[in-house]
Specification:
single chain; 313 residues; alpha+beta; five-stranded antiparallel β-sheet; two-stranded antiparallel ribbon
């Protein structure tokens, strides 16, 4: 089969999305939903949705693109942006910017690196970012929800209390990470309060359309939907860079190789991706590979960049 990239000047996303959905439908081996969070385990691994949001808010979608799902670690991108906007480079004294090379909930590196997490997208790093945002706002999860509602244009976005409760009941590893970092002085707030904020932010339910729209501020180099600036152009570049190198757990190298876009996945089966200066995407399918990334989601984004020629490379 000869693959012809669509020239960006004549790009229409709907036919591309339709073709991708048809190909994904016939793809065997779609992985398994996350079973260590009981509230996620029952999702159909063959469900699939994908959306593309242009910079002006025009959205294209296919499949289950308006079906809400558990955002999980995707929200770490938005929490990072909110805190980076407030404290700037001071954040990097408390969390690194390098790929971890270890599972996203690993304790191993923290001991070797004196309680400083390797990057903001592994669980330990996200806990630090949430802690710092909580110190500055008094309600980190509430600030995150307000941002997602505003950028998506969907005032009905909300926390999923069942998912939050499920994560709380099975959150011993995250509690261990938080207590360990607190012992090094890298956590400001009481650990139980921090964990409540963290689990709530991960529980937010949103659709592909919601998240594609919410992520377009990164494609607009830090400009929000209302025209105000959340991040400087340099800070938006930083967030996109960390997404590219660290956004898909310890499979970031393979994701960059296959997809060629900044992306952030979550164990709910969603992945957001950014084409700077052009659009943002979100794809969802609950079946995960052994590294916690959506099997169909990665395949769909791979096909998108192949068919359109849109990537950062």
């Amino acid at each position: 089969m000869v693959i012809m990239a669509v020239p960006p000047s004549s790009l229409t996303y709907q036919p591309v999305l339709k073709r991708i959905a048809e190909e994904i439908e016939h793809t065997p081996g779609r992985g398994r939903p996350a079973d260590y969070i009981p509230a996620l385990a029952a999702r159909d691994p063959r469900a699939f949705g994908m959306a593309v949001a242009e910079l002006d808010g025009t959205v294209y979608g296919v499949g289950d693109w308006r079906e809400p799902f558990s955002t999980q670690s995707i929200t770490k991108v938005f929490t990072l942006a909110l805190d980076l906007a407030r404290e700037g480079d001071e954040l990097w004294e408390h969390v690194g910017r390098e790929p971890s090379g270890n599972p996203f909930n690993s304790l191993v590196q923290l001991e070797h690196e004196n309680g400083i997490p390797r990057n903001p997208f592994i669980n330990a790093g996200a806990l630090v970012v949430t802690d710092r945002l909580q110190t500055r706002t008094g309600d980190a999860a509430g600030e995150l929800l307000a941002l997602l509602r505003a950028e998506s244009g969907n005032p009905d976005l909300d926390f999923d209390e069942e998912v939050a409760a499920s994560e709380t009941a099975h959150g011993d590893r995250n509690a261990a990470l938080a207590h360990f970092m607190a012992s090094y002085g890298n956590i400001d707030n009481p650990v139980p309060a921090l964990l409540d904020q963290y689990f709530r932010q991960c529980s937010i339910a949103a659709s592909c359309a919601d998240l594609a729209l919410a992520a377009t501020f990164l494609a607009r180099h830090g400009i929000r939907a209302d025209g105000t600036r959340l991040l400087s152009r340099s800070q938006a570049k930083q967030v996109n860079a960390i997404m590219l190198t660290c956004g898909t757990y310890d499979a970031a190298g393979d994701f960059a190789y296959r997809v060629g876009l900044p992306g952030k996945s979550g164990v709910g089966g969603g992945i957001i991706a950014v084409v700077p200066g052009r659009c943002a995407l979100c794809v969802w399918s609950p079946g995960l590979d052994e590294r916690g990334n959506s099997v169909a989601g990665v395949a769909a984004l791979d096909r998108f960049t192949t068919l359109t020629g849109l990537s950062v490379f």
